[in-house]
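Sequence dictates fold. Below is an illustrative record:

_____
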Amino acid sequence: MKFTDGYWMMREGVRASYAAEVADVRVDEDRFTLYAPVRHVTRRGQTLNSPLLTVECWSPAEGVIGIRSTHHAGAAERGPEFALHTEPGHTARVTREGSLLELTAGELSLRVDTAAPWRLDFTANGRVLTSAKARGTGFAVLGDGSHYSLAQLTLNVGELVYGLGERFTPFVKNGQSVDIWQADGGTASEQAYKNVPFHLTDRGYGVFVNHPGKVSYEVDSEAVGQVQFSVEDQSLEYFVLYGPTPKDVLDRYTALTGRPALPPAWSFGLWLSTSFTTSYDEETVNRFVRGMAERDIPLGVFHFDCFWMREYQWCDFTWDPEVFPDPEGMLRRLKEEHGLRVSVWINPYIAQKSALFAEAKRHGYLVRKADGDVWQWDLWQAGMALVDFTDPDAREWYASKLRTLTAQGVDCFKTDFGERIPTDVVWHDGSGPERMHNYYTQLYNETVFEVLSEARGAGEAVLFARSATAGGQQFPVHWGGDCESHFGAMAESLRGGLSLGLSGFGFWSHDIGGFEGTPTPEVFKRWVQFGLLSSHSRLHGSKSYRVPWDYDEEAVAVTRDFTRLKHRLMPYLFRAAQQAAERGTPMMRAMVLEFPDDPACHTLDRQYMLGEDLLVAPVFSADGFVDYYVPDGTWTHLLSGEQVQGSGWRRERYGYDSLPLLARPGSVIPYGSSDDAAEYDWAHGVTLRVHAPVDGATVVTRIPAPGVRDDSAAVFRTTRHGDTVTVDAEGAPGPWQVLLVGARAQPGDTGSSAWAERTALGTLLAVSAGTAHLTARLAGG
C-alpha cells in the first residue's frame, strides 16, 4: 500500500508516524526492547499526547534477527499464526558500549545508536546489509480509521529483489507493488495462487514478514531505494536472515518455516490426466494408458480430474456411477496391469447438491457468517460452502472421506483451489477472517498430506497443490495453475516457478502444453521438453486431451525420449530432491541461486539450473531459436557431447529432439541403468558421466536409495591428476561404468578391471561388480 504522495507529502486522509529516536531501552541477556517516540523529544512536555512505539529485537536462530514494532499492544490476539521453528540451544549476544547497542546472532548483527536519530543497521562481516532509517519503522492511520503498521528497509545501488511467492510478473521485483493475497488469477496477471511474505536479494540476505494476512509490498517503487511492507494491524513482525549466499538464506528460511517433505520416487515419473471438461470414462482411461504403452512411453501416474465425481456435487468424494461403475476394480486393474499410481482431483468446497452438504451443516463443519448462516455462493459450484478446517472435528470428518478413497486405491490427491476464501465469516477457532484468507490453504493441504502419510507410510505422501503460503513448502508438490497454451504462457509459468523456488519451495510443476486452449504441435513439443526437465511432470489440459498422438508423431517421439531421459537421470534428480528436503534448495534453481557472483545471471528467467549441475534453456519459439547465457568454464551438452565455452551469450537453433541442456564444468552426472520407470535401483549399473574434469579436483557423487531421505546406496569419488582420472567406489551394489565425455582414454595400469569402448560421446569404461577403484589415462581429444 502506498501512503505517501511523492517524496514530501502524505496521501489525502493519511496520517503517518515514524520512529524518530530511542527514548529508552530495556536490555536482557539475549534481546533488547527499544522505546521510540515519533518525534524528537527535547523536554518533558513533548512526551504528552504523542505515540511511543515499542520495538522488540531478538534472535530465534543463528543468522536470523527478529523485529517486532508495536503501536497499541491491547488488541486481542487472533490466529492463525505461522508455525515457526526456533533453533534449539541458540542464544544471541547483546553488547552495549556507550550509546551503541548490538544484538549478534552468528555472523549477523543489529546495531543501534541510541543517541542518534532512529536507525537500525543489519550488518554482517563489517558490511551493512540493509537499514531501517527515518521512515523505516512506523504506522499510518487512514481517514476511515484503519491502522497500518509499516517498515522500510534500504536497498543498495543495483540491489535486486526476488521471491514473494509464485509470481508471474517480472522475475526481478524491483519497481513492483505486490499484495500478499491469495487469488485465483491465472498465470498472466499480478494475482497469485501462492503468496509468500518472504523476499531475498542478491546482496546476501532475505526478509520474512511474520503475518499470515495481507502484506502489501512496495519494492523500490513508492520510495525508491527501499522495500516497504505494511499490514493492517497494530504491530508488525519481521525477520532478517543472513546468507551469505542465496542458498544459505533459503536454508535459514526453511529451517524457520519448515523444510519441504521428500516426495516419493515414483512421483517423479510422467503423470497423465483425463484433462478437465473433456469427455471420459473407463474406456477412455484404458485407451490413453494402452496408447502410451503401445508407443513405448513409460507412464507413472494416472490422474482423474474433476468429473470423476458427478456434476454439481463437488466434492462428495463419490465416483460417478454412470461413468465409473466399478472404481475399485478399475483402480486395481490400473495398478496390476500397468503398474500405475492413481491421483484424483479434490477441492475444499462442498456443493449444496452434494449429500455431504446437509451432513456437514448438521454437524457445524461449514464456515458460517456472523448471523449463524452457512456462507455460500454460486461461483464454481452451485450453492457451495467451505469446510472449516479450524474445527478439529471438521478436519477429521473431511479426512475420513479421503481415507475411503485411499482404501479404494487412490495414491495421491490434486488439492485444487483454496484461494477464494471469504473475509465476511466467523471461524470455529475465532481466527481473524483477514488473517485466515491466506492461511486457509495451509490447513487444507496439511489435512490431506497427513491422510496420505497415514495411509501410505512415511515418505510416500505427495500432493499436486495449487495454493500455498509461507510454510506450504512442507507439503509438496505444487503446480503453476491455469495457464494458456502458447509460448508466452510457457515462459510466464517458468517465471512463476523460479520465483516460487526463491520463496522456499523445493518442488514445482506445471501443465505440459498449457491448460486453457489447445497448444499447437510446436508449443506442445517444446513444453514437453521443459516439463520433463522439471521437478515433476504432468500432461494436463482443460477442454482438450494432452495425449501426444493428438498432436503429431514427432510429439510422440519427443514425449517418449524425454520421459526416458528423465528416468535415466533419476539418480541425479533424486539427490537434488534430497537437497531440497535437507536445506530448502529448490530442484529448479534460478541462475542467481547457483551463480550469485555472476551479475549476468541475476536477471535470467528463461533458463534455470536443474539441480546444481544441469543448465536448462527451454525453447520458447516455433522456429527453434533460443538465446541463453552460459556462465564461465567449459560446459558440455548432455545430449550431443559438444563442449561450450563460457562465459557469454549464445543463439542457437534446435530441432525437437534437443534443447540447450548443459552439464556444468567438472560435473559428474550419474545415469541410471533403466529408463522404463522413475523408481528402480539407481546405483546398480550406474554410469558416471564425467564432464571436463578439473585437474586437482575431487567430485563426490552420492547415489540415493529410492525413498530414503539421507542415506546413499553408493558413493563415488572422481579425481583428476594430470592425464589420469581415478574413480573410487563405496557401496556399489553391482557393476558400474564411467563415461569420459568428449575424451579419448584407456584403462590405467593400476590393476583396475575396466574395459574401454569409444562411443559418440566419449570413452566408456566399465567395471565388474565388486570393483572399488578405476583408473583411466586421458589420451586427449
In short: Residues 192 and 274 are 25 Å apart (CA to CA). Residues 433-456 form the longest helix (24 residues).
